[in-house]
Amino acid sequence: MSGQRVREGYTGTGPGAITPDGCAVELYRRLPVRDEPDVIAAAVPAGASILELGCGVGRVTGPLAERGFRVTAVDESPQMLEHVRGAVRTVCAPIESLDLGEERFDVVMLASFLVHAGDERVRDGLLRTCRGHVADGGVVLLQREGADYRLDLPKERTYPEGHTVRIVSAEPVGDGVDSIHVEYVFDDARWTQTFRSRELSKERFEACLAEAGLAVDRYLTDDGIWVRAVPVRVVP
Fold it and tell me: Model-level pTM?
């Protein structure tokens, strides 16, 4: 299973394959597409080449391909990649060590709150990969947590399709990192995931981007969750 690593503090339960970071393959196959393709399509040129980092089962990959985008889909889980459809190609590799040589993309996308990685070295590696693979004049799209993500827990939301997502707890484990426990409940199945996440204020988020040679161009959604960044030259 190329590129997969056991991660301390990351676990998952439920039917089917569970990746080392606690993600359930069958769960992600069930989760519907929401407004992500609309947000992305409105923020980038039509037909752009997209490097999608952490694509999972391709929940967003397929809809982007249907809109005419040329998507290279990256994930470290071969079980996830087996389900990706519509990509120009898939690449099985850890994001933070990805190296596609001289290839550059109009858009590099880092969604799923991956920028909140508990390990700062991993987060910095993710952002370096974004900066290293975006073309001159290209953009990086990132998804960050909403301001109320960790407030008033436990809390839950039931979606029109009938399933419920419940953020059960966010327990501090030291150095500004929380252990987040989430439940996904369907009529016929239940999954859980526990993972580590570092809260980032807007100021700290932008500082992390700057350290990687990126700068916020604009916040794409009113809640500040989707962000468009552009490459800048890092001054030694």
Answer: 0.94
